[in-house]
């Protein structure tokens, strides 16, 4: 019987996907997109600038041109494409995401079989400690992690499109360094904010917000969302902070937000990737497994969030789509 050549080709594409990711990581680690932007565009120039052998650069770039990351050739010179442009060492680029995923997270994924069969974080198997413990004592990894998280915030500027924030006070629960808060305050000049996170995060948020939007419209609170949240908000945001916690813990956070709301016109908004079991696209299912690999967490379905919100005295009012397959779940107090 003849082999299904199309199926075999598709299988090979999947099997070699890790190689492609590591080649892209290598180019970013060597700073090749930035070197091309500076005018060092030939194999010889790139090899000299990166301290590499020209043959290695030639073979790497041949593949990356075939993948559409760069254009041109090693003799006349390469140029950046839109793909490599978003990997330049600039604010809001995907460079640090590529570096983090090519190093620590690539190592975590090497333990996928054990992680999936035991539902144990691949990162903890690889490094002998949980991700956040590791980050607490590795400053370089912590910086890359924070910048990678920032790079994933492509939907922040669109949040005001799904909820009216004019003249409102919103509470960014677990707001981290404040990117969501800054994006909303930039987009809605008459909004005010309260940002809450653990005590050691607040100085970072203060510095970032001072540089981005100033501190005249924002209050900062150190604390634990599982114990309580700032009171008196019109809108409470929980943005990408729920995936690593149990259903019971999340319900407790919802209850804390419900108790702290200004009045019955207040709303709780969850900003997360959600999963579906039927007709799923690749990215949400992949991110769900990635959470298992990194911190043992999971993404939930809209139905699951609806149940947990109901347990906390909140009803889902509507669901809205945001860029990069992010979902906004808007809930009202009952």
Count up the helices. 17
Percentage of residues in DSSP E strands: 15-25%
Number of domains: 3
Order of helices and strands: HHHHHEEHHHHHHHEHEHEEHEHHEE
Structural class designation: alpha/beta
Radius of gyration: 22 Å
Overall pLDDT confidence = 94
Large-scale geometry: globular
- Low-confidence runs: none
If classified by CATH, what would the architecture of the largest domain be? 3-Layer(aba) Sandwich
Q: Within the largest sheet, what's the order of strands?
A: 5-4-3-6-7-9-8
CATH homologous superfamily identity of the largest domain: Vaccinia Virus protein VP39
DSSP strand count: 9
Largest sheet properties: 7 strands, mixed
- From the N-terminal CA to the C-terminal CA, the straight-line distance is 63 Å
Q: Key terms for this structure?
A:
globular, single chain, alpha/beta, Rossmann fold
């Amino acid at each position: 019987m003849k082999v299904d050549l199309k199926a075999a080709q598709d299988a090979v594409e999947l099997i070699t996907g890790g190689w492609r990711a590591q080649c892209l990581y290598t180019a970013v680690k060597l700073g090749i997109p930035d070197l091309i932007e500076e005018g060092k565009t030939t194999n010889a120039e790139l090899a000299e600038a990166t301290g590499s052998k020209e043959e290695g650069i030639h073979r790497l770039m041949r593949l990356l041109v075939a993948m559409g990351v760069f254009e041109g050739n090693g003799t006349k010179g390469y140029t950046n494409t839109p793909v490599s442009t978003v990997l330049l060492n600039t604010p809001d680029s995907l460079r640090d995401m590529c570096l983090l995923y090519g190093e620590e997270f690539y190592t975590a994924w090497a333990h996928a079989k054990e992680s999936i069969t035991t539902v144990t974080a691949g990162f903890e198997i690889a490094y002998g400690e949980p991700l956040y413990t590791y980050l607490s004592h590795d400053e370089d990894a912590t910086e890359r992690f924070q910048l990678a998280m920032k790079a994933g915030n492509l939907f922040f500027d669109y949040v005001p499109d799904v909820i009216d924030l004019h003249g409102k006070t919103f509470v960014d629960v677990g707001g981290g360094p404040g990117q969501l808060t800054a994006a909303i305050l930039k987009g809605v000049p008459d909004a005010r904010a309260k940002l809450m996170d653990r005590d050691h995060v607040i100085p970072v948020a203060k510095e970032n917000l001072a540089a981005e939007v100033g501190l005249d419209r924002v209050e900062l609170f150190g604390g634990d969302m599982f114990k309580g949240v700032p009171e008196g908000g019109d809108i409470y945001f929980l943005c990408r902070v729920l995936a690593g916690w149990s259903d019971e813990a999340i319900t407790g956070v919802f209850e804390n937000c419900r108790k702290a709301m200004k009045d019955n016109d207040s709303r709780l908004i969850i900003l997360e990737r959600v999963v579906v079991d039927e007709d799923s696209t690749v990215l949400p299912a992949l991110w769900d497994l990635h959470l298992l690999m990194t911190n043992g967490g999971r993404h939930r379905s809209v139905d699951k969030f609806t149940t947990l919100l109901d347990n906390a005295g909140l009803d889902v009012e509507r669901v809205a789509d945001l860029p990069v397959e992010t979902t906004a779940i808007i809930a009202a107090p009952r």
